[in-house]
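BUG: 3D viewer hangs when loading the predicted structure for this chain

Environment: internal workstation, default settings.
Expected: structure renders.
Actual: progress bar stalls at 90%.

Input used:
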Amino acid sequence: MTYFYEILIVVYLVVALMLIGMVLIQQGKGADMGASFGGGGSNTVFGSTGSGNFMTRTTAILATLFFAISLILGNQTADKSQAVDEFDSLGVVEQPVDSDIPNEENNQQSNEIPN
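C-alpha coordinates produced before the viewer hung:
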Protein backbone atom coordinates (compact mmCIF):
# COMPACT_ATOMS: atom_id res chain seq x y z
CA MET A 1 0.00 0.00 0.00
CA THR A 2 2.85 2.40 0.73
CA TYR A 3 4.44 1.74 -2.66
CA PHE A 4 1.19 2.69 -4.38
CA TYR A 5 1.05 5.90 -2.34
CA GLU A 6 4.66 6.81 -3.18
CA ILE A 7 4.10 6.11 -6.89
CA LEU A 8 1.00 8.31 -6.81
CA ILE A 9 2.99 11.13 -5.18
CA VAL A 10 5.63 10.95 -7.93
CA VAL A 11 2.99 10.83 -10.69
CA TYR A 12 1.18 13.72 -9.00
CA LEU A 13 4.36 15.80 -9.04
CA VAL A 14 5.09 15.01 -12.70
CA VAL A 15 1.50 15.82 -13.75
CA ALA A 16 1.61 19.09 -11.79
CA LEU A 17 4.87 20.16 -13.46
CA MET A 18 3.57 19.20 -16.90
CA LEU A 19 0.35 21.11 -16.25
CA ILE A 20 2.29 24.21 -15.22
CA GLY A 21 4.43 23.91 -18.34
CA MET A 22 1.43 23.52 -20.66
CA VAL A 23 -0.33 26.52 -19.16
CA LEU A 24 2.79 28.68 -19.50
CA ILE A 25 3.41 27.62 -23.13
CA GLN A 26 -0.09 28.55 -24.31
CA GLN A 27 -0.72 31.91 -25.87
CA GLY A 28 -3.41 34.18 -24.55
CA LYS A 29 -6.44 35.19 -26.61
CA GLY A 30 -4.97 38.64 -27.22
CA ALA A 31 -1.82 37.18 -28.81
CA ASP A 32 -3.56 36.60 -32.17
CA MET A 33 -3.97 40.32 -32.74
CA GLY A 34 -0.27 40.99 -32.22
CA ALA A 35 0.68 38.10 -34.49
CA SER A 36 -1.31 39.56 -37.39
CA PHE A 37 0.81 42.74 -37.31
CA GLY A 38 4.13 40.96 -37.70
CA GLY A 39 4.54 39.45 -34.26
CA GLY A 40 5.92 36.22 -35.71
CA GLY A 41 2.91 34.03 -34.90
CA SER A 42 3.38 31.92 -38.01
CA ASN A 43 6.73 30.64 -36.78
CA THR A 44 5.28 28.54 -33.99
CA VAL A 45 5.95 24.81 -33.69
CA PHE A 46 2.34 23.70 -34.14
CA GLY A 47 1.35 26.31 -36.73
CA SER A 48 -0.74 29.40 -36.15
CA THR A 49 -4.03 27.61 -35.40
CA GLY A 50 -3.02 23.96 -34.94
CA SER A 51 -1.66 24.45 -31.46
CA GLY A 52 -5.01 25.44 -29.96
CA ASN A 53 -6.66 22.04 -30.06
CA PHE A 54 -3.56 20.06 -29.07
CA MET A 55 -2.61 22.30 -26.17
CA THR A 56 -6.18 22.77 -24.98
CA ARG A 57 -6.82 19.02 -24.96
CA THR A 58 -3.50 18.26 -23.28
CA THR A 59 -4.17 20.87 -20.60
CA ALA A 60 -7.66 19.49 -19.99
CA ILE A 61 -6.34 15.91 -19.69
CA LEU A 62 -3.55 16.97 -17.32
CA ALA A 63 -5.98 19.01 -15.20
CA THR A 64 -8.35 16.04 -14.98
CA LEU A 65 -5.47 13.74 -13.95
CA PHE A 66 -4.30 16.30 -11.39
CA PHE A 67 -7.69 16.53 -9.70
CA ALA A 68 -8.32 12.77 -9.86
CA ILE A 69 -4.94 11.98 -8.29
CA SER A 70 -5.49 14.62 -5.60
CA LEU A 71 -8.82 13.03 -4.69
CA ILE A 72 -7.23 9.57 -4.52
CA LEU A 73 -4.35 10.84 -2.38
CA GLY A 74 -6.73 12.71 -0.09
CA ASN A 75 -8.86 9.60 0.31
CA GLN A 76 -5.86 7.45 1.18
CA THR A 77 -4.44 9.88 3.72
CA ALA A 78 -7.81 10.34 5.41
CA ASP A 79 -8.01 6.61 6.15
CA LYS A 80 -4.58 6.43 7.78
CA SER A 81 -4.33 6.47 11.54
CA GLN A 82 -2.08 9.05 13.10
CA ALA A 83 1.38 7.64 13.77
CA VAL A 84 2.86 8.22 17.19
CA ASP A 85 5.73 10.65 17.05
CA GLU A 86 8.87 9.61 18.88
CA PHE A 87 9.24 13.03 20.44
CA ASP A 88 5.78 12.84 21.97
CA SER A 89 6.67 9.69 23.89
CA LEU A 90 9.77 11.08 25.58
CA GLY A 91 9.56 10.92 29.34
CA VAL A 92 9.35 14.42 30.72
CA VAL A 93 9.90 14.66 34.44
CA GLU A 94 8.25 17.61 36.11
CA GLN A 95 10.38 19.16 38.78
CA PRO A 96 9.17 21.64 41.38
CA VAL A 97 10.18 25.17 40.54
CA ASP A 98 11.59 27.44 43.23
CA SER A 99 10.05 30.82 42.67
CA ASP A 100 10.70 34.20 44.20
CA ILE A 101 7.03 35.03 44.21
CA PRO A 102 5.68 35.27 47.78
CA ASN A 103 2.80 33.00 48.54
CA GLU A 104 0.01 33.34 51.11
CA GLU A 105 2.17 32.11 54.00
CA ASN A 106 4.76 34.81 53.47
CA ASN A 107 2.11 37.53 53.19
CA GLN A 108 0.52 36.57 56.52
CA GLN A 109 3.82 36.75 58.37
CA SER A 110 4.56 40.37 57.54
CA ASN A 111 1.65 42.64 56.74
CA GLU A 112 3.75 45.76 57.22
CA ILE A 113 4.46 47.94 54.26
CA PRO A 114 8.11 48.93 54.03
CA ASN A 115 8.85 52.67 53.91
